[in-house]
Amino acid sequence: MSPVLEARGLHVGFGARSRAAVPPIRAVDGVELAVERGEVLALAGESGCGKTTLARALLGLERPYRGEVRFHGEPLRYTSRALRAYRRRVQLVLQDPTGALNPRRTVYEAIAEGVRIHRLPGDERDLVARALSLAGLRPPERFFARYPHELSGGQRQRVVIAGALALEPEMIVADEPVSSLDASVRGEILALLLSLRDQLGLSVLVVTHDLGLAWNIADRLAVMYLGRIVESGPAEEVLAAPKHPYTTALLSVLPGRTPVILKGETPDPSRVPAGCRFHPRCPALVDGTAQRAGVNGRCVTQELTVLPATGGHRAACLLAGATA
Amino acid sequence: MSLLDIRDLHVTYRVGGGGLPAVRGVDLTVHEGQTVGLAGESGCGKSTMAGAVLRLLPAGTTITGEVRLAGDDVLTMSWGKLRAVRWSAASIVFQGAMHALNPVRRIGTQIAEPILLHDAKATPKTALRRAGELLERVGVPAWRAQSYPHELSGGQRQRAMIAMALACSPKLIIADEPTTALDVMVQAQVLALLAEVVEEQRVGLLLISHDLSVLSASCDRIAVMYAGRVVEEGPGHELFTAPRHPYARALAAAFPVIGDPVSRRAPKGLPGDPPDPRELPPGCPFHPRCPDVVADCREVDVRLSAPDNGRRAACVHTGGVR
User: Fold this and answer.
1) What is the pTM of this model?
2) Could you say which of 3.40.50.720, 3.40.50.300, 3.40.50.1010, 3.30.70.20 is the CATH number of the domain covering B4-227?
3) Which residue from A95, A111, B9, B181 could staple onto A176, CB 3.0 to 4.6 Å apart?
4) Is the pLDDT of residue B104 over 90?
């Protein structure tokens, strides 16, 4: 059975002069990714690594200049009619629930809007009530007439999730769903995402910079750096025994560990370095690990292969045995 | 003498004719060379504490108690004295550097401003040179003084805010969620920088965050606030690894330890929401959300226990004072 959603050789860029030209900014630069039915996949990386662009391309909000997005094995079509049907089945949940809700609309209106746009069959009130209670806002009638400012941050995020659930999607793409929420609310929202997967068989793609979130809910984890997936595999394996020096560094800065602090910030996708794209910041090159393994020369010259979408724990690093 | 000594601080905002008690009797001390963490959720009063230290709260706010900064009470100080104290005795690094910096003025000019205000001998030229040195000090190239805030990355802007906070060599720095909007790696860079400043310049640092795991890694002591009061206080590492108050326990569990099988596929939250400060529940304000609630909790407004090995908690289960 084919995965629910797939990226195949996906390239998304910005700033191209024409549709045919290769864009100067390569935000997503060759990504293979697959989300199975009922799977929670976490896509992790720093700001500017391309994770949000990748998520947007998967939702059909950005059009790739090379490669394709597949939904149940079928290439995504970019006509407005096809996209509308697609977006009902793959729903987006944004980071900041306060910004995602219209402050002058009641909770009922916010959720009913999608139901009306997609002309869902059935009684609107029932659909809204069902979505609210799935999102943990019970009894739902109590929330119908509320405005966003009357709700707490956690309740607002539940309303946003209810808005997505009202359309009975197969998949939810959540971009940093808890990063603007308080610590105590965070766990509640993550638990909700897990229970939706268990109850409804939803697939979930969570875009995050928070590896703890991946430990909390993800089945699989893909770590992205400068437009590419640099490490992927079952979440336990990647987090317990990272193979890529970038993942190792990201994990090392968590409290209670010995930090390997990388210099600088995520580099510029308009100037992707030659060889391994992480080499200018790689601690394994600085401390001589790469030299002892005899790969330091190739690190700066040899382009690495793109990691496959499925399968076991792998890293795009010469030290981890990746070859071109 | 301690750098910052807060005694029985109460802060009540005026909201639409009524009062909103944001801080309800807090004691807190910061010594030089010490990093103290203040943890809690939005609305618990932690940012109000920061504002009260430099009297940055809106007009009409009622503040009682004592806030002693190197011995002088900030709350009764004259305006002239207060202006002299701000930046030079204590400075604040605000949350969200994009909004705290003026978008239409160059970084260097903004850092030079407090220097010119506080150092009578400074000229615009020397102040700008000093701004460049401060930027270098926090790991931003000095030529960035010529840049506007939007030309800097998020991490560089937060570093520039720290440079500004250091401009007048204050003894106390208050950092209100300094890393919240930043990536993990940049967050680690900024926290390492703050730790270095504390170490080298022996300043006192009051670090405010909702992330207890971040605080535990950098703080000597942590105070956890709930509904305007400190509900637990103790050494940073111990408080995080073995919290006593059920609220502190929930905060500590909210951020999982990767590799700990207990939290794998089991995110931990705390049901319910913080109470409205205008309608606090009777008894312990945490009781409606508390997993360990007993009959007493609904009636007794429990206060912090006497210190036991440097630890205090306001809970009936751990000897809180009735």
Assistant:
1) 0.89
2) 3.40.50.300
3) A95
4) yes
